[in-house]
Sequence to fold (488 residues):
Amino acid sequence: MNLDVIEAFAQLEKEKGIKKDILISALEAALVSAFKRNFGSAHNVRVEVDPDSGTVQVFARKNVVDDVKDPRSEISLAEALTVNPNYATGDVIETEVTPRDFGRIAAQTAKQVVLQKIREAEREVIFEEYSNREGDVVTGVVQRYEGRNVIVDLGRVEAVMPLSEQMQKESYQQGERLKVYIVEVRNTPRGPQVVVSRTHPGLLKRLLELEVPEIYDGIVVIRQIAREAGIRSKVAVSATDPNVDPVGACVGPRGIRVQKIVTELKGEKIDVVEWRESPEEYIANALSPAKVLGVRINAVVKAAMVIVPDNQLSLAIGRAGQNARLAAKLTGWKIDIKSESQALELPKVEELEATKSTEPVVEEREDVATPEEMAGEHGEQNAPDEQSALEEESAGKQEEQNASEEEQSAPEKVVGEEGAKEGTTPYSEDEGKSKVKKKQKKKGIADDAKILEEEDEAEASRKKVKRRPKMKRKREELLEDEEEDDYF
Fold:
């Protein structure tokens, strides 16, 4: 082995970041296995590579013992003293057994082992680098889709963005550059796997630190973040310096600072509110941009009732309850929002419920009659009433009968009068009855025809065939009879 190998190791150290000592150790382990395989030696050997000159030496290791049982791994004390008088029982003696053509064989055999060690060392370096960067924001390039996962190139490693870490309304194009949040780094048999996210609240926090110098310097502190990725977020901030406005520092002049973050997050709305120690003030600020008239809190159950103007109720609740939901997540309080008119009705309802609960129950007792007495009294009182009711019912029936007779006779009189006026002979009673019978017969024939037609359609739809000609002829006959009756 020559200096070219040592120079190659130095070049790998610069390009891959793999230390030269790790590569030399991998080479020594590969040479040990190559020596045992090619020379059939069962000796316990050690290979030493000089990091400066690249010289390779092979040493056989034997234990110094009094009684030799295995000459391949043991040596007697007397023989060891001939080599070096300082050896004693239990020591390990090394003798050089380097073959002449070991360099060529070692280079061929150790190639794959060295490459494997290089890959392992490179994976270890990448894992250590990115495991220390968990919670940081990095810039990557979208490479491709693997199923529903997005593969992002971070430079030295490809990161995976699962579907759960992708923003709902965001689409990723190949070659697109975007900032991602490193959630987790896993050491797998295939190498380190980096999991990144676009929905984690930490992404918004890191972006604020990058854009707002006051946050990076510690003058402004981010207290809490509530986020619905891709739609809306709320950030609670406070200032360690009383002369600094934390909300204004985050928003920036004309909103330029927060606008950069909104652009990076593809239009996600960001509300920056001031954090307060008082729960009432903090909850009122969290419901921004709605104006709050008052806050009533219940510290036992950690619930709050917020009163807003009537025209601000929908703004305070937000679309699908989004503003109220984010405010509750940001503050950690259960929030119930009421309008001003609803709040004015609450005391009346509470007072009414209080009076109902405190009002004593008074039982009024009356003399209760026995069933026999009640039956007797009702029988005596209702006897004349029942008789008068029967008389009224019979009189009503008689009136209805008279009215029906008048209605039946009314058409005959009208027809007779019209005939007299026109100079024609009025219809007699028999002719009127025959006319009514003809109309009834005509109506019955039409009803029968309709029934037959419905039966025919049902039969045709059930069997999916054309209507039977027999039913058609019968219907035509009925219609002809109807026309003849009309003629006569």
Q: What stands out?
A: Residues 371-422 form the longest helix (52 residues). The chain has a mean pLDDT of 75.
